[in-house]
Design a protein that fits this description.
Length: 368
């Protein structure tokens, strides 16, 4: 509220230019696109002008203005205009309320130490295999959520990959948002199937500027069934750019069939063209090579708190850097204020009648 006090004091000094500047800084609109509805106010204005002129021309057909006033002494064009004006202002206030005014924005900057970490998670259908209970994907989800809880002060980005790689989140310190995306990830988010680890590494490298990539860690969580060549080469290029690549292999060497679902119900297991059930196996060789070329470490998945701490310790070995972080105080939503004004204006508009209470004219009309 200190911003609002500054606005109030400035306006009291009648410094109108500075007052307007402070108001624009203090009050923001969450949905500025909704202000397009103010076109309706302009249309109402045009409709009122057209209606007024049409009514005036129509009344002139019956006689002069003085005669019309005598014939209809209770008519009040002023009241009619006031009612229209109140209704139009109420509509404008409703649009402003819909745009949701936000008050209390205060920009603060600070210097915070941390590293940038990109999580690349395999969401191919092979991650539905249940050799790791309840499934590889569910265990990966639980592991990542615990890992994010450990990464205090670090910026985190999220990439999901299957047949293609997709950047879900840029680097952010909003860890709650990262966990929300992770909890909602599923195999249906990938339109094409496969395990494009190389593309995920390439996307992690290309998504951020050279300045942001130093230092950066990339954590790949996958069963390693890569159907695209060149992942190890991409890991080597990532290491040359300043990124350290870690790989966590989830699954077992024995493997497990891949469940197939229809409308949320399991209907069987994936089979090849000959009708044989396909087994998805952990490819530790591929993942180990990727981690080695990326100057990182390969870890077989255990999902234990010790593994989370071990990975956290690996990050601590990376040289940390300082970066500027911009923070904003929480906004206070003020949509209810223009909404209250709109309701008040509508109530006044309803109370006001278009005819004036000319009691003398009423008495003369009654006697006549």
């Amino acid at each position: 509220m200190s911003v609002l006090r500054k606005v109030y004091r400035t306006c009291l000094r009648a410094d109108l230019v500075l007052c307007r500047t402070y108001i624009m800084q203090a009050i923001q609109l969450q949905h500025t696109e909704y202000l397009a509805a103010l076109v309706a106010v302009v249309l109402l204005l045009a409709l009122f002008v057209v209606s007024y002129r049409w009514r005036k021309r129509a009344m002139k057909r019956f006689g002069q203005d003085e005669l019309l006033r005598r014939l209809n002494p209770f008519s009040s064009p002023t009241r009619r205009f006031i009612k229209w004006l109140l209704g139009t202002l109420a509509l404008a206030m409703l649009v402003v309320s819909w745009a949701n005014p936000l008050v209390g924005r205060q920009k603060q900057t600070g210097v915070k130490k941390g590293i940038d970490i990109v999580l690349a998670i395999d969401i191919s259908r092979s991650m539905l295999a249940e050799d790791v209970k309840p499934s590889r994907l569910e265990r990966a989800r639980q592991f990542v959520v615990r890992l994010v809880d450990e990464l205090q002060g670090d910026r985190i980005g999220l990439i999901l990959f299957a047949g293609r790689a997709y950047r879900q989140l840029p680097l952010t310190t909003d860890h709650a948002l990262v966990k929300m995306f992770v909890r909602n990830m599923n195999t249906e988010l990938a339109p094409s199937q496969g395990t494009a680890i190389g593309e995920a590494i390439s996307l992690a490298v290309e998504s951020y500027s050279g300045e942001e990539r130093k230092p950066m860690a990339l954590v790949i969580i996958s069963d390693g069934e890569d159907h695209e060549p060149g992942a190890a080469e991409m890991a080597r290029q990532a290491a040359e750019s300043g990124m350290t690549v870690y790989a966590i292999g989830i699954g077992t060497a024995r493997g497990a069939p891949i469940p197939e679902y229809f409308r949320g119900q399991m209907i069987g297991y994936k089979a090849d063209a000959q009708g044989n059930i396909v087994l998805s196996k952990l490819n530790e060789t591929e993942l180990s090579m990727i981690a080695s070329e990326g100057n990182g470490t390969y870890m077989p998945f255990t999902g234990s708190p010790d593994q989370v701490r071990s990975l956290r310790n690996e990050f601590d070995l990376i040289k940390q850097r300082e970066y500027e972080e911009v923070r904003f105080d929480e906004y206070a939503t003020w949509y209810q204020i223009p909404l209250a004004f709109a309701l008040l204006l509508l109530m006044i508009e309803v109370i006001i009648v278009e005819t004036r209470r000319n009691w003398m004219a009423r008495i003369k009309l009654f006697r006549a």
